[in-house]
Amino acid sequence: MDVPCVAVARESGEAARSALAAADALDDDHEIAVEDGRLYIPITDAEAAADAVAVLDGDTEMTTHDLPVRQGVRTPADILGFEPSVERIGDIVVIDEDDPDRAATIAEAVIDADLPARSVLNRASKIKGELRVRDWEVVAVDDDAAADSELSPTETVHREYGHEFCLDLAAVYFSPRLATERHRVVEQIDPGEQVLDMFAGVGPFAIPAASRGADVVAVDLNETAVDYCRENARRNGVANAVTAIAGDVRDVADDYHGWADRLVMNLPHSANEFVATAVDLAGEECVLHYYDIQHEDDPFGPGIEAIKAAAEPEYAVTVETEHVVRSYAPHELNVCLDVRLTAAHR
What we know:
This protein is α/β, with parallel strands linked by helices.
């Protein structure tokens, strides 16, 4: 299972481990892994971990990695005799099982294992509708953990790179699998930038961007997601830097014409329908992070064509990065284009 960790050069490993232990940020439930000359050290608190390793020499990265559970900790696999496919979002464990008996068996093992889980949800539908939500079946709840929480079985607080996001999976879209990609984009942001997230959800791009010193506008069609975005901005201490707006970004564009230094377009199935709006929002110089899902034979071409068709000749279009985020389906890739738009009269 992917868990939060710090990646460091092998020669810095002991210093990093000691610093994390001193900060009480070392995860003792998972083993340290070595891959390509780097150590992946599991952590419990990303913010404390980042502070702990900030003073170390050499390259360090906050990331996630598939790390084995430390021996002596009973896992669902120990109980079941096989490794179930699970995903953790905060203290919720998500499974995807068509057989209700198998789902119940896995959920019971998750609750009985030593790793914390307040509830187990089974995906009951595909993502659907304009709001990009799905149906869920609550398969199991840890009664002791639930008694200590005011949240429903589908609500949780998910922590990612030093930020925390309250959300309800039954009402909003959220994917923890994009944590590393979100961090990649946020690390490019400079203080003072004007950033507009066109499909912001509960704020996993917007709030870290504000923490970098950006002035952020976060737009989403899902009013519940926008409510969570405002709450998450408050709980992460950036409420004054985030303007969260419920509505279609095409209806918001007139109020922010030419405003953005950076645009995030994470709506990969239909982002091409919003490129003209993105161009309208772009300032004199603007970086566009355009997410797409395309066939592996030409994963970047359609997006580049769509952006150029909407932006030229008013803007010069420079593709700075062609980045594969992940495999989405057989022969289909989820990709990101980092594109710089520069007003042609400059």
